[in-house]
Design brief:
Strand order of the largest sheet: 1-2
Shape: elongated
Structural class: mainly alpha
Number of strands: 2
Distance between the termini: 64 Å
Radius of gyration: 28 Å
Largest sheet: 2 strands, antiparallel
Length: 356
Protein backbone atom coordinates (compact mmCIF):
# COMPACT_ATOMS: atom_id res chain seq x y z
CA UNK A 1 0.00 0.00 0.00
CA UNK A 2 1.30 3.44 -0.82
CA UNK A 3 1.81 6.10 1.88
CA UNK A 4 -0.98 8.34 0.55
CA UNK A 5 -3.72 5.74 0.97
CA UNK A 6 -5.78 5.09 4.08
CA UNK A 7 -4.17 2.79 6.61
CA UNK A 8 -6.13 0.12 8.51
CA UNK A 9 -6.28 0.56 12.28
CA UNK A 10 -4.73 -2.16 14.36
CA UNK A 11 -7.68 -2.97 16.60
CA UNK A 12 -10.78 -1.70 14.83
CA UNK A 13 -10.29 -2.54 11.22
CA UNK A 14 -11.75 0.83 10.24
CA UNK A 15 -9.89 3.04 7.82
CA UNK A 16 -8.15 6.11 9.16
CA UNK A 17 -8.04 9.11 6.83
CA UNK A 18 -4.81 11.03 6.77
CA UNK A 19 -5.68 14.77 7.24
CA UNK A 20 -4.66 17.28 4.60
CA UNK A 21 -1.94 19.73 5.65
CA UNK A 22 -3.16 23.22 6.75
CA UNK A 23 -2.07 26.26 4.79
CA UNK A 24 0.79 28.20 6.33
CA UNK A 25 -1.22 31.45 6.44
CA UNK A 26 -4.94 32.30 6.41
CA UNK A 27 -6.30 34.72 3.80
CA UNK A 28 -6.34 38.33 4.95
CA UNK A 29 -9.63 39.75 6.17
CA UNK A 30 -10.76 43.05 4.62
CA UNK A 31 -11.10 44.91 7.91
CA UNK A 32 -10.96 44.30 11.65
CA UNK A 33 -12.13 46.53 14.46
CA UNK A 34 -9.37 48.37 16.32
CA UNK A 35 -8.29 47.43 19.81
CA UNK A 36 -10.25 48.97 22.67
CA UNK A 37 -13.98 49.31 23.01
CA UNK A 38 -14.63 47.75 19.61
CA UNK A 39 -12.11 44.92 19.93
CA UNK A 40 -13.43 41.59 18.77
CA UNK A 41 -16.27 43.10 16.76
CA UNK A 42 -15.89 42.83 13.02
CA UNK A 43 -17.41 45.62 10.94
CA UNK A 44 -20.04 44.84 8.32
CA UNK A 45 -18.68 44.09 4.87
CA UNK A 46 -17.62 47.11 2.86
CA UNK A 47 -20.01 48.25 0.19
CA UNK A 48 -18.53 50.67 -2.28
CA UNK A 49 -20.52 52.87 -4.60
CA UNK A 50 -20.01 52.40 -8.31
CA UNK A 51 -19.89 55.30 -10.78
CA UNK A 52 -23.16 54.11 -12.31
CA UNK A 53 -24.96 54.20 -8.96
CA UNK A 54 -23.62 57.70 -8.31
CA UNK A 55 -24.96 58.86 -11.66
CA UNK A 56 -28.38 57.40 -10.85
CA UNK A 57 -28.51 59.14 -7.48
CA UNK A 58 -27.46 62.48 -8.91
CA UNK A 59 -29.88 62.13 -11.83
CA UNK A 60 -32.78 61.33 -9.48
CA UNK A 61 -32.05 64.38 -7.31
CA UNK A 62 -31.72 66.66 -10.34
CA UNK A 63 -34.98 65.32 -11.74
CA UNK A 64 -36.81 66.19 -8.51
CA UNK A 65 -35.25 69.67 -8.57
CA UNK A 66 -36.40 70.15 -12.17
CA UNK A 67 -39.95 68.98 -11.36
CA UNK A 68 -40.09 71.40 -8.42
CA UNK A 69 -38.86 74.30 -10.56
CA UNK A 70 -41.41 73.52 -13.25
CA UNK A 71 -44.04 73.27 -10.51
CA UNK A 72 -43.32 76.83 -9.44
CA UNK A 73 -43.85 78.03 -12.99
CA UNK A 74 -47.04 76.02 -13.48
CA UNK A 75 -48.45 77.22 -10.14
CA UNK A 76 -47.83 80.84 -11.12
CA UNK A 77 -49.19 80.38 -14.62
CA UNK A 78 -52.44 78.68 -13.51
CA UNK A 79 -53.31 80.57 -10.32
CA UNK A 80 -51.84 83.97 -11.14
CA UNK A 81 -51.81 84.16 -14.91
CA UNK A 82 -55.47 83.16 -15.52
CA UNK A 83 -58.70 84.80 -14.38
CA UNK A 84 -60.24 81.54 -13.16
CA UNK A 85 -57.11 80.64 -11.24
CA UNK A 86 -57.01 84.04 -9.59
CA UNK A 87 -60.67 83.65 -8.66
CA UNK A 88 -60.09 80.28 -6.98
CA UNK A 89 -57.00 81.57 -5.18
CA UNK A 90 -58.76 84.72 -4.03
CA UNK A 91 -61.75 82.70 -2.83
CA UNK A 92 -59.42 80.74 -0.55
CA UNK A 93 -58.01 83.97 0.83
CA UNK A 94 -61.46 85.49 1.36
CA UNK A 95 -62.69 82.28 2.98
CA UNK A 96 -59.91 82.54 5.54
CA UNK A 97 -61.62 85.59 6.97
CA UNK A 98 -64.49 83.41 8.21
CA UNK A 99 -63.73 82.30 11.74
CA UNK A 100 -60.31 83.92 11.58
CA UNK A 101 -60.29 85.29 15.10
CA UNK A 102 -60.11 81.91 16.83
CA UNK A 103 -57.70 80.36 14.34
CA UNK A 104 -55.46 83.40 14.40
CA UNK A 105 -54.76 82.77 18.07
CA UNK A 106 -52.96 79.61 16.99
CA UNK A 107 -51.52 80.88 13.71
CA UNK A 108 -49.98 84.12 14.95
CA UNK A 109 -47.41 82.51 17.31
CA UNK A 110 -46.31 80.19 14.49
CA UNK A 111 -45.65 83.12 12.19
CA UNK A 112 -43.94 85.17 14.90
CA UNK A 113 -41.16 82.57 15.04
CA UNK A 114 -40.10 83.19 11.44
CA UNK A 115 -37.57 86.03 11.22
CA UNK A 116 -34.03 86.81 10.13
CA UNK A 117 -32.83 85.87 13.59
CA UNK A 118 -34.62 82.54 13.27
CA UNK A 119 -32.72 81.75 10.07
CA UNK A 120 -29.43 82.87 11.62
CA UNK A 121 -30.05 80.61 14.61
CA UNK A 122 -30.81 77.73 12.22
CA UNK A 123 -27.48 78.30 10.44
CA UNK A 124 -25.62 78.15 13.75
CA UNK A 125 -27.51 75.04 14.89
CA UNK A 126 -26.84 73.23 11.62
CA UNK A 127 -23.16 74.14 11.81
CA UNK A 128 -22.89 72.83 15.36
CA UNK A 129 -24.54 69.52 14.42
CA UNK A 130 -22.37 69.13 11.32
CA UNK A 131 -19.15 69.93 13.20
CA UNK A 132 -20.08 67.56 16.03
CA UNK A 133 -20.47 64.82 13.43
CA UNK A 134 -17.20 65.87 11.74
CA UNK A 135 -19.09 66.36 8.51
CA UNK A 136 -17.75 69.75 7.54
CA UNK A 137 -19.31 69.72 4.08
CA UNK A 138 -22.82 69.32 5.49
CA UNK A 139 -22.61 72.72 7.17
CA UNK A 140 -21.83 74.38 3.84
CA UNK A 141 -24.53 72.48 1.97
CA UNK A 142 -27.17 73.33 4.59
CA UNK A 143 -26.15 77.00 4.54
CA UNK A 144 -26.42 76.93 0.76
CA UNK A 145 -29.99 75.67 0.96
CA UNK A 146 -30.98 78.34 3.46
CA UNK A 147 -29.41 81.16 1.45
CA UNK A 148 -30.35 79.87 -1.98
CA UNK A 149 -34.01 79.19 -1.25
CA UNK A 150 -34.68 82.50 0.48
CA UNK A 151 -32.81 84.58 -2.10
CA UNK A 152 -34.59 82.74 -4.93
CA UNK A 153 -37.97 83.51 -3.40
CA UNK A 154 -37.19 87.21 -3.15
CA UNK A 155 -35.85 87.38 -6.70
CA UNK A 156 -38.89 85.57 -8.12
CA UNK A 157 -41.35 87.65 -6.13
CA UNK A 158 -39.95 91.11 -6.77
CA UNK A 159 -38.04 90.91 -10.05
CA UNK A 160 -39.15 87.93 -12.14
CA UNK A 161 -42.85 87.17 -11.63
CA UNK A 162 -45.71 89.64 -11.90
CA UNK A 163 -49.45 89.58 -11.26
CA UNK A 164 -51.70 90.73 -14.11
CA UNK A 165 -54.78 92.69 -13.13
CA UNK A 166 -57.63 90.26 -13.93
CA UNK A 167 -60.11 91.62 -11.42
CA UNK A 168 -59.22 89.52 -8.35
CA UNK A 169 -57.16 91.00 -5.57
CA UNK A 170 -54.37 93.57 -5.74
CA UNK A 171 -52.18 93.84 -8.82
CA UNK A 172 -48.83 93.29 -7.01
CA UNK A 173 -47.27 89.85 -6.90
CA UNK A 174 -46.99 87.86 -3.64
CA UNK A 175 -45.75 84.52 -5.02
CA UNK A 176 -43.75 82.74 -3.57
CA UNK A 177 -44.37 83.12 0.17
CA UNK A 178 -41.28 84.31 2.03
CA UNK A 179 -42.44 83.08 5.46
CA UNK A 180 -43.12 79.61 4.08
CA UNK A 181 -39.78 79.51 2.30
CA UNK A 182 -37.94 80.47 5.49
CA UNK A 183 -39.68 77.83 7.61
CA UNK A 184 -39.35 75.05 5.03
CA UNK A 185 -35.69 75.83 4.30
CA UNK A 186 -34.83 75.56 8.00
CA UNK A 187 -36.58 72.19 8.16
CA UNK A 188 -34.65 70.93 5.13
CA UNK A 189 -31.32 72.24 6.42
CA UNK A 190 -31.79 70.34 9.68
CA UNK A 191 -32.76 67.21 7.73
CA UNK A 192 -29.49 67.42 5.79
CA UNK A 193 -27.19 67.55 8.83
CA UNK A 194 -28.76 65.24 11.44
CA UNK A 195 -27.62 61.60 11.80
CA UNK A 196 -29.52 58.86 9.93
CA UNK A 197 -31.35 57.62 13.03
CA UNK A 198 -33.16 60.92 13.52
CA UNK A 199 -33.87 61.84 9.89
CA UNK A 200 -37.29 60.14 9.64
CA UNK A 201 -38.69 62.10 12.58
CA UNK A 202 -37.00 65.32 11.50
CA UNK A 203 -38.65 64.88 8.09
CA UNK A 204 -42.08 64.37 9.67
CA UNK A 205 -41.75 67.24 12.14
CA UNK A 206 -40.15 69.50 9.54
CA UNK A 207 -42.93 68.83 7.06
CA UNK A 208 -45.52 69.50 9.76
CA UNK A 209 -43.83 72.76 10.72
CA UNK A 210 -43.52 73.95 7.11
CA UNK A 211 -47.16 73.04 6.44
CA UNK A 212 -48.33 74.75 9.64
CA UNK A 213 -46.46 77.90 8.71
CA UNK A 214 -47.97 77.90 5.24
CA UNK A 215 -51.50 77.37 6.52
CA UNK A 216 -50.93 80.08 9.13
CA UNK A 217 -50.10 82.61 6.39
CA UNK A 218 -53.41 81.69 4.76
CA UNK A 219 -55.28 82.00 8.07
CA UNK A 220 -53.81 85.45 8.60
CA UNK A 221 -54.64 86.37 4.99
CA UNK A 222 -50.99 87.11 4.37
CA UNK A 223 -50.73 84.76 1.38
CA UNK A 224 -52.88 82.81 -1.01
CA UNK A 225 -52.46 79.02 -1.29
CA UNK A 226 -50.52 79.33 -4.57
CA UNK A 227 -47.97 81.59 -2.85
CA UNK A 228 -47.39 78.97 -0.16
CA UNK A 229 -47.17 76.05 -2.60
CA UNK A 230 -44.64 77.95 -4.71
CA UNK A 231 -42.52 78.62 -1.61
CA UNK A 232 -42.53 74.92 -0.68
CA UNK A 233 -41.51 73.99 -4.22
CA UNK A 234 -38.63 76.48 -4.21
CA UNK A 235 -37.27 74.81 -1.06
CA UNK A 236 -37.83 71.35 -2.53
CA UNK A 237 -35.76 72.33 -5.57
CA UNK A 238 -32.87 73.57 -3.44
CA UNK A 239 -33.06 70.56 -1.13
CA UNK A 240 -32.90 68.20 -4.10
CA UNK A 241 -29.90 70.09 -5.49
CA UNK A 242 -28.21 69.71 -2.10
CA UNK A 243 -28.80 65.96 -2.20
CA UNK A 244 -27.30 65.85 -5.70
CA UNK A 245 -24.19 67.57 -4.35
CA UNK A 246 -23.94 65.09 -1.48
CA UNK A 247 -24.40 62.18 -3.89
CA UNK A 248 -21.30 63.36 -5.77
CA UNK A 249 -19.28 62.68 -2.63
CA UNK A 250 -18.17 66.24 -1.89
CA UNK A 251 -18.79 65.63 1.81
CA UNK A 252 -16.21 62.86 2.11
CA UNK A 253 -15.07 62.95 5.71
CA UNK A 254 -11.48 62.19 6.62
CA UNK A 255 -12.65 60.20 9.64
CA UNK A 256 -14.95 57.42 8.49
CA UNK A 257 -15.92 56.64 12.08
CA UNK A 258 -17.18 59.96 13.48
CA UNK A 259 -18.44 60.37 17.06
CA UNK A 260 -21.95 59.30 16.12
CA UNK A 261 -20.55 55.94 14.96
CA UNK A 262 -19.63 55.12 18.55
CA UNK A 263 -23.30 54.78 19.38
CA UNK A 264 -24.45 51.20 19.34
CA UNK A 265 -26.55 50.32 16.32
CA UNK A 266 -29.90 49.01 17.53
CA UNK A 267 -31.85 46.83 15.18
CA UNK A 268 -31.28 46.02 11.58
CA UNK A 269 -30.54 49.09 9.53
CA UNK A 270 -30.91 51.45 12.49
CA UNK A 271 -27.71 53.30 11.65
CA UNK A 272 -28.15 53.45 7.92
CA UNK A 273 -31.47 55.22 7.56
CA UNK A 274 -33.14 52.02 6.39
CA UNK A 275 -34.70 50.96 9.68
CA UNK A 276 -38.38 50.71 10.53
CA UNK A 277 -38.44 54.40 11.50
CA UNK A 278 -37.83 55.45 7.91
CA UNK A 279 -40.52 53.13 6.64
CA UNK A 280 -43.06 54.41 9.15
CA UNK A 281 -42.20 58.04 8.37
CA UNK A 282 -42.50 57.52 4.62
CA UNK A 283 -45.84 55.73 4.96
CA UNK A 284 -47.13 58.51 7.22
CA UNK A 285 -46.03 61.25 4.83
CA UNK A 286 -47.46 59.34 1.87
CA UNK A 287 -50.81 58.87 3.61
CA UNK A 288 -51.04 62.58 4.43
CA UNK A 289 -50.11 63.45 0.85
CA UNK A 290 -52.72 61.19 -0.68
CA UNK A 291 -55.58 61.97 1.71
CA UNK A 292 -55.03 65.72 1.91
CA UNK A 293 -54.24 65.96 -1.80
CA UNK A 294 -57.38 64.08 -2.84
CA UNK A 295 -59.61 66.21 -0.62
CA UNK A 296 -57.93 69.38 -1.89
CA UNK A 297 -58.40 68.32 -5.50
CA UNK A 298 -62.12 67.69 -4.97
CA UNK A 299 -62.67 71.02 -3.20
CA UNK A 300 -60.66 73.12 -5.62
CA UNK A 301 -62.20 71.42 -8.64
CA UNK A 302 -65.66 72.31 -7.34
CA UNK A 303 -64.56 75.90 -6.84
CA UNK A 304 -62.91 76.02 -10.27
CA UNK A 305 -66.04 74.81 -12.04
CA UNK A 306 -68.30 77.22 -10.14
CA UNK A 307 -69.73 80.17 -12.06
CA UNK A 308 -69.09 82.45 -9.08
CA UNK A 309 -66.28 81.10 -6.81
CA UNK A 310 -66.60 84.05 -4.44
CA UNK A 311 -70.38 84.32 -4.50
CA UNK A 312 -71.37 82.50 -1.31
CA UNK A 313 -70.07 81.55 2.10
CA UNK A 314 -70.17 77.86 1.19
CA UNK A 315 -68.04 78.48 -1.92
CA UNK A 316 -65.52 80.50 0.10
CA UNK A 317 -65.23 77.81 2.78
CA UNK A 318 -64.85 75.10 0.16
CA UNK A 319 -62.02 76.96 -1.53
CA UNK A 320 -60.44 77.83 1.81
CA UNK A 321 -60.47 74.21 2.95
CA UNK A 322 -59.16 73.00 -0.40
CA UNK A 323 -56.32 75.52 -0.33
CA UNK A 324 -55.30 74.60 3.22
CA UNK A 325 -55.36 70.87 2.44
CA UNK A 326 -53.37 71.47 -0.73
CA UNK A 327 -50.66 73.18 1.30
CA UNK A 328 -50.53 70.25 3.73
CA UNK A 329 -50.29 67.75 0.85
CA UNK A 330 -47.41 69.57 -0.84
CA UNK A 331 -45.53 69.96 2.46
CA UNK A 332 -45.84 66.24 3.21
CA UNK A 333 -44.87 65.20 -0.32
CA UNK A 334 -41.82 67.48 -0.28
CA UNK A 335 -40.63 66.10 3.07
CA UNK A 336 -41.07 62.52 1.90
CA UNK A 337 -39.19 63.14 -1.35
CA UNK A 338 -36.29 64.82 0.45
CA UNK A 339 -36.11 62.05 3.04
CA UNK A 340 -35.69 59.50 0.25
CA UNK A 341 -33.14 61.62 -1.60
CA UNK A 342 -31.13 62.34 1.55
CA UNK A 343 -31.00 58.68 2.47
CA UNK A 344 -29.96 57.75 -1.06
CA UNK A 345 -27.35 60.51 -1.39
CA UNK A 346 -24.79 58.88 0.88
CA UNK A 347 -25.90 55.25 0.92
CA UNK A 348 -23.27 52.90 -0.43
CA UNK A 349 -20.55 55.55 -0.29
CA UNK A 350 -18.74 53.73 2.50
CA UNK A 351 -19.18 50.83 4.87
CA UNK A 352 -22.69 50.35 6.19
CA UNK A 353 -22.97 52.25 9.42
CA UNK A 354 -24.01 55.52 11.02
CA UNK A 355 -21.48 57.57 9.06
CA UNK A 356 -23.72 59.43 6.62
Amino acid sequence: MCAGRAAVGAGTGSPTVVPMPRPTSAPATPWRAPDGADAGRVAPPARWRTPASTVRRVAAALLVALIAAVGVGVTWRVFVGTAQGQAVDQASLDGAHIGQNRLWEVAEPVLDVVSVGFIAAAVVACAVIAFARRRWGLALVAAGVLAGANVTTRVLKYWVLDRPDLGYGPDFNTLPSGHTTAAASVAVAVLLVVPPRTRPWVAVLGGAYAGATGVSTLVGQWHRPSDVVAGLLVVLAWGALACAVLALGVDTAGDRRPPTAALRTVGRGAGTGRGPGTTVALWLLAAVTVLAGAAAAVALRRTWSSDDPVGSTAALLTSYGGGALGIVAVAAASSGALLVLRRSATSGADRVGPTS
